[in-house]
Amino acid sequence: MSIWLASNPWLTVLYGVIVLAIIAAVAYYTPWSIALFTFREGLRKKTLIGFLILSILVIFGSMFMTAMMYDTGGTVATDVDVKLIKDICITAISIFGVLIAIFISASVVPTEIENKVIYTVLSKPVRRFQYLLGKFVGVQIIVAVNLLLMGVLFSIALYIKEPIFPRMLLYAIFLTYFEFLIVSAFTFAVAAASTSAVLPTIAGLFIYITGNLTQYLESVVNRSEVSENSVDKGLGWLAWVLRNTLPDLQYFSLKTQILSLQINDTPKDIQIPNLVVYGILYALAGYIIAFWVFRRKEL
Amino acid sequence: MSVVIETQDLTKVYKGMSKAQDLVALNKLNIQVNEGEIFGYLGPNGSGKTTTIKLLLSLIFPTGGKMKIMGNPNITSPEVRKHIGYLPEGAYYPDFLRGEEILSYYGNLYGMKGASLKKRIDEVLEVVGMTRARKRLIRGYSKGMRQRIGLAQALLSDPGILILDEPTTGLDPVARKEIRDLLIQLRDQGKSLLISSHELLEVELISDRVGILFEGVLQTSGTIDELLTSREFSIKAEEAAPEATQKVREAGLITEDAVAGKASLRVPETMSLYQALDICKSQNMKIVSVSPRRETLEEVFVRVVGSAVSSKEAQRGER
Questions:
Q1: Which residues of A touch B76 (CB under 8 A)?
Q2: Looking at beta carbons, which pairs linking A17-24 to residues 24 or more positions away fall under 8 Å?
Q3: Are A72 and A78 in contact (CB under 8 A)?
């Protein structure tokens, strides 16, 4: 079955309707001027530019690294070469991409509160949910553009070593965006309640790390069930709560497949509609929490 | 004349850790701003002026009381907001944008677009005298230019109500005069202005009515003429020898100026004009003129706030 279909046709249609309805609502209610302003402002943040430059250096650095480690005479790329480049690049995109997503999501609203720009914006005929939506959409444009840029550079780096169409990589980038969307939405929710970017940044990192440790959380829960120790029981309970409330970000990772399969292969054992809806619903939950805390926030 | 801004028993309490630590920022405030007037909103730092403005703009929320803007109690509605222009104190404008770009951004928030927005931007830039600097990055603007661009964004939608927090801060004397003239011109066009300011002389020059706030309580309000009543008299005298001037001062008259035998004296509220004239005559001074003396807004402000401070201290003493 195609990875673009859910487990049955009706579910695919339902998911399609949900995704289209959410996209249409966002497109209709978003004050695009706020979103574009946020995008332009975000591109000027030095930290963001720093992360982006670092990721570019790592992506292209990986090519030189393989050239130095495995001398192939400069003509034929070995599997080890390509695998190393893939490993380094996909890790760099994950780390720098998520740092950019967290940093920008954590800072856009607190910065405007701090420098009072928000006063002039919210005194205009703009409702608070629209303001937040504009900011959130602006953040998503930044995250998507950065991810796209890193993906293109990764593809170029790979293409130089192995000139084939990097289909697997495109799927990986596409799914990574939804992983970042979830992390970004929850970071944004914490940022909407904060006056500084520090706490939301920590919260974003916590969600990203915990969301990628679901197997570990599962094993903590399993261990606590057979243990008599009250500390183990407590930890087990905490792990169970985290496991069942936080998103499982490992669903979005194609790293194992990228490393083990050919770069022009199609990913296996995934259902993209499920993951897209999963990502969008978690992001919606994050936005609703953000709005809930922000709607009566004193500025 | 209709009321455009109205508060009824407006109260704002910032909750502390305990009841004793609660801060009453506004206590049952009742103010009215009428259509087509400039209302000068005065008070020392921390008296609750900015709190009132933030409440009117729903940037914060009241603990009690009611507010109406243009008769509408739903002050968060975009319909109401369309009619309000706001200049915050010390606001930052994104410095990576040009003057006209920031106005375009704010114009979009009002739903303005295309040629009509461009035309309006041209107009407001002309009004605030920033046409020549429109293409410059805000990062290169002086403090006064930022204030002007702030005023321009407040005027963008041609609002009926302008709420201005310290509108002349950072401006040089010429620019202050220009802004003052502009505010009067806006008033004459029928707009209603609520101006919070520390610049008492400016407020006195342009305001129709004034309210003085202290520790969240409106101490007094009224028209400039009502507040600046003639409570004292001025006497100008000649043949005022230094000894004679000294004597009249000891008798309770206030010497404002005494040079080369000419003296300007002020009769305090506690003394009658007849008593004062008798004192001058007894010192053989030649009275040149007697005129009622109108208080300045600064004097009223100091008197009102001083009296509020005294009564507060007296209350504390009683406890």
A1: 127
A2: A18/A277, A18/A280, A18/A281, A19/A276, A19/A277, A19/A280, A22/A280, A22/A284
A3: yes
Query: How many other C-beta atoms lie within 10 A of the C-beta of residue A216?
Result: 12
The verdict on a CB contact (< 8 Å) between B92 and A127 is no
CATH of the domain at B108: 3.40.50.300
In a domain, B204, yes or no: yes
Distance from CA of A117 to the nearest CA of B (A): 6
User: SS3 sequence, A126-181?
Assistant: CCHHHHHHHHHHHHHHHHHHHHHHHHHHHHHHHHHHCCCCCHHHHHHHHHHHHHHH
Q: Please state, in angstroms and rounded to a whole number, the distance separating the CA atoms of residues A292 and A287.
A: 8
Question: Within a domain: residue B312?
Answer: no
Angstroms from B186 CA to nearest CA on chain A? 20
Query: Which structural domain range is residue A172 located in?
Result: 9-212+253-294
> Which residue among B60, B84, B97 sits closest to A298, beta carbon to beta carbon?
B60
Structural domain including B77 reads 3-227
Q: Report CB contact under 8 Å: B92, A41.
A: no
Flag whether residue A79 sits within 8 Å of chain B, measured between CB atoms. no
Query: In terms of domains, do B217 and B73 share one?
Result: yes
For chain A, give the mean pLDDT.
87
Domain count, chain A: 1
Domain contains B310: no
Residue in B96, B109, B163 to test binding to A, most A beta-carbons within 10 Å = B109
Q: Tell whether B21 and B36 lie within a shared domain.
A: yes
Mean pLDDT in consecutive groups of 10 residues from the start of chain B, 319 residues: 91 89 91 94 90 94 94 91 91 86 93 92 92 91 88 93 88 85 91 90 89 91 81 84 87 85 86 88 88 82 84 76
What residues have CB less than 8 Å from B311, skipping those under 6 apart? none
| Yes or no, beta carbons of A124 and B61 under 8 Å apart | no
Do B219 and B253 lie in one domain? The reply is: no
From A175, A158, A111, select the one nearest A138 (Cα to Cα): A111
List chain A residues with pLDDT less than 70: 1, 66-78
Residue A60 has a pLDDT of 79
Does ipTM come in above 0.85? no
We report the CATH number of the domain holding residue B281 as: 3.30.70.1150
Are B106 and A116 within 8 A, CB to CB?
A: no
Pairwise CB contact (< 8 Å): B78 & A121: no
